[in-house]
Amino acid sequence: MTAPRPARFDAAVTGVGMVTAAGADAARSWEAVVNGGVPAGVGPHPALEGLPCDFAYVADADVRGKLGVAECRLMDRFAQLAVVAAREAVASAGLDSGLWEGSRVGVVIGNAHGGLPFYDEQHASLRRTGRVSPKTGLLTPVTGATESVTRDLNASGPSFAVATACASGTHAIGAAHQLLRSGQCDIVITGGAEAAVGRLLVASACQLKALSTRRDDPASASRPFDADRDGFVFGEGAGILVLERPEHARARGAAVLAQVSGYGAATDPEATVAPAADGAALERALRTALADAGVSGPDVDHVNAHGTSTPANDLVESEVLARVCGEGPLITSSKAMVGHTLGAAGGIETALTVLALRDQTVPPTANLSSLDPNVRGHVVGKDARPARLECAVKTAMGFGGFAAALVLTQA
Amino acid sequence: MDAAQHVHEVLRQSFGVDAQAVSADTALHQLRLDSLALEEFRFIIEERMAIDLEDAHITSRDTVAHLVNVVGARAGS
What we know:
The structure holds two protein chains of two kinds.
Chain A: E1 11-19, H1 26-35, E2 42-44, E3 55-57, H2 63-67, H3 69-72, H4 77-92, E4 105-110, H5 116-129, H6 136-139, H7 144-153, E5 159-162, H8 168-181, E6 187-194, H9 199-207, E7 237-244, H10 246-251, E8 258-267, H11 280-293, E9 302-304, H12 311-325, E10 330-332, H13 335-338, H14 345-359, E11 361-362, E12 378-379, E13 385-386, E14 391-398, E15 402-409
Parallel strand pairs in A: 4-5, 4-6, 9-10, 9-14, 10-12
Antiparallel strand pairs in A: 1-7, 1-8, 2-3, 6-7, 8-15, 11-13, 14-15
Chain B: H1 3-15, H2 35-49, H3 64-76
Helix pairs in contact in B: 1-2
């Protein structure tokens, strides 16, 4: 059965906030990603010593200084990063959480692994002393980022976390788009946050052989679409957008950076870890998102790809993009600059896509020196590319077979 | 370091509260130390001072002075 398709709905993006390994805020992250060059936020990580992949991207943020001890104690790091990015996004949108009608504001933030660092710490404490912190159940669920942002910003509308592994942030923004379209909120604070760089998860991913083992040169390890790529590299961070119903943004005279105009999602039930060879779920998600926005594949000018730098992902993804959009779109992956931030990836990379539309510039794919000859499409290497960008796509895939796509359009 | 110093240091480092800047009669809830915070405080101070506060009765309606006294009594016993 085919359901009737609702009219296109353009959610206004009026603010962005980021905390990434590339920069402590959105402006610095964007500037570093556009200028490309050598990734600065990646290096050996003390918790990973001795592992085949012993390095990671660490977010550059004075969280304690920005939030204070009293606020920080009720959040694990992923939630702290989310609050810092959300405050920035709301401020850049010209909104004041002290003045808004909180019941019309929702919060939808994607996250994959919750408070893994706090789990680790408390597990060690339990073994050592037989006791654990009473905060364990509060700080560790994937809801931690969403819940902390609602408290910090006095947002009392519909709020929830979204968990679809590495696609969480992208699904979250799609869910936010739906909340606005249905009229349940005027404003949704949305995106993704993750801080799960720890020995447990990284050691496990090493065993899956999903990670780069380029220990002699961590800065060149994540190299999406490059012929010499050998896996992804963990990262942490947060990327948050302020989405508004277009009438709400217009009524208050807000500057609109870009629009979220379409969302699609699908699942490959069999693709537990590696993406399905035919990328079927990603293709369906992308086609659904394009139809939702009332555009067709060849209308897409720019794609901020999932581009994890694993051999399988980048091939499957480029095939899907070429099949659906042709070879016209300028493709980039930001993961060599910010790392693979798992549940935060969709938030950070959608924020970067918003800024690409604002500045009419496609950022380079850092570390791309020799394009994999099997990769189809136009991947932007080395230098940023100014271009006429009206329509852009953000794609995401996650362990478990989850796929999501967003269509963003110029304001 | 005496009990008061330990208490003040834990409140500052772990809870962002400067208990020395307020009157000793200030209720703990006025410093945003709710029941969860006090349970966490107990956990930290027991570890730090190697004492047992398991059966000590502390609520957020108690004062800073009471908290110091309770900890001091256990540390001295």
